[in-house]
């Protein structure tokens, strides 16, 4: 049997909802974070109803005042959320009715929670993306700063995690700048799909009341109104797109993490991460672990998971709204939080990275990293590259077989044994510095090219 009138939809029901069902279906525990946007949307909706003559001037003002008061109550932590009222939308509506009486029930005229929630998420995500873009830019600045500090630092560049050719550390770091630059661009681009106003689609078919969606869009700063009511209550593309962008961004941070973890190991010894950004071990007293990059790498998996949760949740849903979609917010909120935290902590972590320049240089000079330059030398003297490649391969094998000596330990006579084209100047030609500064192709690792890119960025 029914107790008291409480739920917005209970007119059709004769029995109370099972407590377990209430708990199972409620979303207020997580969607309450949308309260600001829900109230913002409701105020705009209410003003529009007033402007269209659906509410009187006085009614409009009372409802707006009530909503503003509720916002303050929530901000002060005085608001009591009730899972029996399912979600943030009905919690706020119920409180409005408590505060201003039956008039509060007029707010929901010409809309449904289906278009309301779509509006709320769009308002929310639009703000969060702006914040995320700010965080990306901050991290990009940290990268530039570290790159400038290391404009002359030479390191081994890798392919297959084998030493390949010497590069500037600044150049390597700026590769991450480029990735983040694309992440920023992707989010900027996604804003045009988020910035569309869905209110007025109501449950799915639109409304017969004489509403003015353009006016709501203007009040809420949306350049456009959605063009199909069925699509606009069932579209979650923009959330999936956000999570896909986040997956790519986290993949970038995860690759950076992996490098910092490797580089700070004693095997590499390229960098040290400041103690305030490391933790110790409860059993091994000597340990200083790179937990922050490890956790960013680990969280990347969860962000991919969120993307897959959403894609899987949506893949078989018939049009239009289905309750399944309530789950979207769990994945979305977690993604937003994780991306913001990871970006912010990385901006600070990079300031705590100490670079062991000598180790990097030593490592760059080992492993015959200028073998390609030696071949280029022969090519400049007219030898076909394939032949030059073979000759230098023989030089490398010779060095390995002779105590693993470096190119710089060869005598002119020894090296001439492989080709007559070698002259004394070969030894200057194959220094790591010369190798780097000859990489003058666009976007190459020569100091000139790197400085050019930094100037362009700045
Ligand atoms: N809490 C719901 C959600 O987040 C709001 C929309 C509910 N609509 C409905 N007809 N039950 O998706």
Tell me about this structure.
With 458 residues, this protein is mainly α. It has 3 domains: 10-109, Fumarase C, Chain B, domain 1 (Orthogonal Bundle); 114-198 and 227-362, Fumarase C, Chain A, domain 2; 367-432, Ribonucleotide Reductase Protein R1, domain 1 (Orthogonal Bundle). Helices cover 59% and strands 5% of the residues. The chain has helices at 19-25, 28-31, 35-51, 57-75, 88-100, 113-149, 169-194, 213-219, 229-234, 237-263, 291-314, 328-349, 357-365, 371-380, 385-401, 412-416, 426-429, 432-437, 447-457, and strands spanning 154-159, 162-168, 196-197, 224-225, 271-273, 353-355. The strands form 3 sheets. A two-stranded antiparallel ribbon has the order 1-2. Strands 3-4 form a two-stranded parallel ribbon. A two-stranded antiparallel ribbon has the order 5-6. It is elongated. The mean pLDDT is 96. The structure holds arginine (ARG). The site of arginine (ARG) has 9 residues, from helix 6.
């Amino acid at each position: 049997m029914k107790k008291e009138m409480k739920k917005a939809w209970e007119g059709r029901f004769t029995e109370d909802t099972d407590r377990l069902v209430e708990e199972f279906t409620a979303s207020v525990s997580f969607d309450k974070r949308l309260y600001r946007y829900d109230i913002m949307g409701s105020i705009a909706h209410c003003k529009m109803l007033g402007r269209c003559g659906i509410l009187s001037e006085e009614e409009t003002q009372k409802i707006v005042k009530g909503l503003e008061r509720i916002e303050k109550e929530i901000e002060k932590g005085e608001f009591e959320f009730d899972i029996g009222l399912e979600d943030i939308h009905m919690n706020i509506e119920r409180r409005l009715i408590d505060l201003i009486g039956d008039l509060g029930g007029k707010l929901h005229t010409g809309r449904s929670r289906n278009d309301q929630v779509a509006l709320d998420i769009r308002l929310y995500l639009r703000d969060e993306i702006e914040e995320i873009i700010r965080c990306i830019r901050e991290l990009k600045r940290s990268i530039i700063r570290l790159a400038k500090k290391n404009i002359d630092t030479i390191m081994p560049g890798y392919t297959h995690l084998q030493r390949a050719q010497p590069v500037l550390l600044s150049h390597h770091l700026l590769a991450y700048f480029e990735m983040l630059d694309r992440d920023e661009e992707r989010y900027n681009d996604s804003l045009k799909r988020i910035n569309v106003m869905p209110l007025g689609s109501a449950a799915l078919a639109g409304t017969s009341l004489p509403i003015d969606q353009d006016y709501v869009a203007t009040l809420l700063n949306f350049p456009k109104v959605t063009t199909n009511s069925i699509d606009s209550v069932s579209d979650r593309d923009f959330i999936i797109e956000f999570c896909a962008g986040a997956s790519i961004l986290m993949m970038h941070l995860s690759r950076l993490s992996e490098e910092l973890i490797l580089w700070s190991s004693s095997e590499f010894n390229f960098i040290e991460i400041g103690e305030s950004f490391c933790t110790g071990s409860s059993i091994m007293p000597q340990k200083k672990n790179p937990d922050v990059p490890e956790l960013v790498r680990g969280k990347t998996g969860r962000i991919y998971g969120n993307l897959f949760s959403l894609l899987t949740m949506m893949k078989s849903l018939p049009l239009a709204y289905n309750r399944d979609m309530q789950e979207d917010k769990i994945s979305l909120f977690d993604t937003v939080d994780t991306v913001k935290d990871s970006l912010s902590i990385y901006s600070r972590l990079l300031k705590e990275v100490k670079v062991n320049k000598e180790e990097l240089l030593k490592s760059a000079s080992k492993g015959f990293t200028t073998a390609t330059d030696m071949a280029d030398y022969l090519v400049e003297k007219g030898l076909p590259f394939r032949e030059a490649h073979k000759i230098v391969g023989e030089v490398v094998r010779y060095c390995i077989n002779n105590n693993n000596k470096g190119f710089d330990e060869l005598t002119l006579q020894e090296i001439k044994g492989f080709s007559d084209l070698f002259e004394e100047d070969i030894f200057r030609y194959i220094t790591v510095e010369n190798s780097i500064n000859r990489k003058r192709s666009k976007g190459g690792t020569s100091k000139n090219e790197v400085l050019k890119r930094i100037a362009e960025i700045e």
